Amino acid sequence: MPHINAAAALQICVLLSALPAQYFISQWYGTDSAQRIQITERLIIASWSSFTKSHLSLDAWTDRLKLWLSKTRTCLNVGLFVLHFRNWYHGEKKTKMGDNEAETHSYFAESTHVHSPKPEYIRFSVGQVIVHKRFGYSGVIVGWDVKAKAPEEWLHHNYPPAKQDLKDTPHYRILINKANGFGQSTAYIPEEEITIIMGLEVVHHPDMKAYFSGYDGSKYIMQPWLKKIYPHD
């Protein structure tokens, strides 16, 4: 069986396409043989010219390549935009969550930022044993704020209009002595409600060892991590 290359196959296709072309031309333009041949030749030449310009021209393929690259670049840009937006959105969301969490842990003298320098008006120190002036329970100081730092709902509940000034005074976080049977394990109270007790070593609370390593006769000795937060106490 003879081998037909691409060029031969293309020529055969062109010749075969001429037959139906001649039939339609005869229907449209009459039956004059010479006229049909001329029209057929012009049609074949025009078709071949159009085909070569569309499929065999380097400029045509260059234009196709440019169009494809343009579409690809557009899709890529859209994809990158979506990726950057998604990363920005999730990053922003995580940042906000982190900020809210940090804000929550900064309430009630639980902030881990270094309290330095210590203002002179902060009269008491972490590790000192106290007694509440009104309620009479004892406990130990584990943190302080220069003024009340708590959620607004808590501040409104604990400081009615007549006591608004107390919000701007030093506040202390207390581990309450379980031996008092007070019913609460911690308290957050203003400085004016505290009295210091010297020489009282025993404060019973399940978190004492987490905050303190011992007692020096005047106050409890802070663990290293707590000392870093309150270096001047």
UniProtKB/TrEMBL annotation:
GO molecular function per UniProt: DNA binding
Keywords: Signal
Keyword Signal listed: yes
Pfam families the UniProt entry points to: YccV-like
Hemimethylated DNA-binding domain segment(s): 121-223
Secretion signal span: 1-21
Coiled coil spans: none
Signal keyword on record: yes
Protein name: FBX21 protein
Naturally occurring in which organism (per UniProt): Pampusana beccarii
Encoding gene per record: Fbxo21_1
